[in-house]
Write a structure and sequence with these properties.
Layout (H helix, E strand, L loop, with lengths): L5 H25 L5 H23 L9 H8 L7 H7 L5 H4 L13 H21 L1
Helix pairs in contact: 1-2, 1-6, 2-3, 2-6, 3-4, 4-6
């Protein structure tokens, strides 16, 4: 029996939180009417936690940021097989803020379709991450 891998265990904790965020995002879409702002926010959070988990797994440090562009820039070179989906996650970066606070303009939240597409990307990414572990 091999010794526990602390980086793998810590990354697993990040992935567990990402999985929960993803579950909440999916649930938001089932509400009547759908909770679009919260669904979008939890998509962003799921992507952020997945990327941070990947960085922990690789032993790479990162700043405490919510910026998915910055996190994707760090993770994509480490995991080229995940780069396409990590790149797609960049578009969810603004959802961390714009969907949690009153809008400064009358911009609507992301659409149900765009959140559904994000959920699909994130489910695929999480499945691929779990295959790495």
């Amino acid at each position: 029996m091999s010794a526990p891998d602390p980086a793998r265990e810590e990354a697993g904790r990040w992935y567990a939180i990402a999985s929960e965020d993803l579950r909440v995002a999916k649930t938001c879409l089932t509400l009547s009417p759908p909770a679009l702002g919260n669904g979008a926010y939890h998509c962003q959070q799921a992507a952020e936690k997945m990327m941070k988990g990947l960085l922990v797994f690789a032993g790479t440090g990162f700043r405490k940021v919510h910026d998915l562009d910055e996190l994707a820039d760090l993770t994509s070179p480490l995991y080229p097989g995940l780069a396409a989906d990590l790149d797609l996650c960049r578009r969810y970066s603004s959802w961390a803020i714009e969907c949690r606070y009153p809008p400064e303009d009358d911009a609507p939240p992301p659409s149900e379709k765009s959140i559904g597409a994000a959920v699909t990307v994130l489910e695929r990414l999480l499945a691929a991450i779990r295959r790495l572990a």
